[in-house]
Amino acid sequence: MTFDAMSKASKSDVGPSVNKELRKKTLEWAADREELQLGDGKTDMFICQLYEILATGSTHHVIQDRPM
Questions:
Q1: What is the count of structural domains for the chain?
Q2: CA–CA separation, 5 vs 9, rounded Å?
Q3: Which terminus of the chain has a smaller tally of CB atoms within 10 A, N or C?
Q4: End-to-end distance of the chain based on CA atoms, in angstroms?
Q5: What is the pTM of this model?
Q6: Is 12 domain-assigned?
Q7: d(Cα 61, Cα 13) in Å, to the nearest integer?
Q8: Residue 9 forms part of a structural domain
Q9: Is position 22 within any domain?
Q10: pLDDT of the chain along its 68 residues, tens only?
Q11: Are 54 and 26 in contact (CB under 8 A)?
Q12: Alpha helix segments (H runs only) across the chain
């Protein structure tokens, strides 16, 4: 949730280039984990959520579904 908010607050002239680089690095990270056959876990869920934020601007967190 914090990264989501931080990315929305970045300067507009820097944001797109940083976003593109972060998406590239995130995909490389996921590919490295797959190549090493590390399996699915919390790290992989984090990678997916991070990429979703970078690609679409937000992500869904299961904790948001819990009643308060």
A1: 1
A2: 7
A3: C
A4: 17
A5: 0.71
A6: no
A7: 29
A8: no
A9: yes
A10: 566 676 667 667 777 888 899 999 999 999 999 999 987 888 998 899 889 988 988 777 665 566 76
A11: yes
A12: 2-8, 15-35, 42-56
